[in-house]
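FAQ: What does the model actually see?

It sees only this:
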Amino acid sequence: MAQIQLIVGPVGAGKSTFGLQLSHDHAAVRLTLDDWMTRLFSPDRPAEGVMDWYVERCERCVDQIWRVAASLIAANTNVVLEIGLIRRHERERTYWRAETENIDLVVHVVDAPRALRRERVLARNSERGETFSMTVPEPIFELASDMWEPVADAECNGRDVHFVSAAQGLKPTETP
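And it is asked to produce this:
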């Protein structure tokens, strides 16, 4: 039975790198919000009012990405989803969708210390390697980092959740 491997964590934690690894390990299609946002909307990005503009488009993208993921699951194809979900209520909505649609969901929480994440984002911005999809300015890094709500024990109850640490080379650890 196909599964969705859902990756959550703060900006710069290593989600994209881990997602690439997961997509190879599970012969999965990898769907990332950053790729969709960049390809679909970057040319239209306004000079002002960026947050409102971004939030509205982000919601539409996440909804469409979910629809594609559900179709892939119905075709018995594994999926790796990296769609933001830095706030608990966003994750809860995704958990609810998976439960409602009877989709097997495995959650991977990727995290790293803020200083390391900042270094990674700066390096990714300049190197533009395999996981680069958009430049993350430092103020956006700080804003997104401040918005990150870590996954608490209660959120793990009844779910298949694995914690991944950058300090461990992005290898899964035990579920709490």
